[in-house]
Each structure stands twice: as C-alpha cells, then as structure tokens.
Amino acid sequence: MAASAIGPNEVIAREIRVADMLIGRIASPRPDDLSDPSFKLKDLLGRWPERR
C-alpha cells in the first residue's frame, strides 16, 4: 500500500496520517473501498489491529 493525495492541506495531512497508520498495520484494503471517493480511510483502522 502507498499513499498520495491532492487537495486542501489539512485534509491531505489527516488522510496521509491515517494511510501511514494503515501501512504500519500492514493493512490490505479492498480496491473497491479505495476507489470510492466518499470512503473514509479512518473507517479501515478498526479492521486491522495495531502491530507491536
């Protein structure tokens, strides 16, 4: 998984932080979720536990 964004700085920063957390958790979200512009990355955090 990788993260890239275009848009208002505060929105991008928040989404990139969440993407970074997902990368750290070795998440593998469904492509359908990621291609939906209304989908929030934060919703994925509950699906993958934090790695220690």
Number of domains: 1
Residue runs with pLDDT of under 50 for 5 or more positions: none
Proportion in helices: 40-55%
SSE order: HH
How many β-strands, per DSSP? 0
β-strand amount? under 5%
Question: How far is the first residue's CA from the last residue's CA?
Answer: 19 Å
Specify the overall morphology. globular
- Structural category is mainly alpha
Description:
Helix content is 40%, strand content 0%. It is mainly α and 52 residues long. It has one domain (9-47). The chain starts with 8 loop residues before the first helix and ends in a 17-residue tail after the last helix.
Report a brief summary of the structure:
The chain has 52 residues and is mainly α. The chain is built from two helices and no strands.
SSE blueprint:
Elements: H1 9-24, H2 31-35
Search tags:
52 residues, mainly alpha
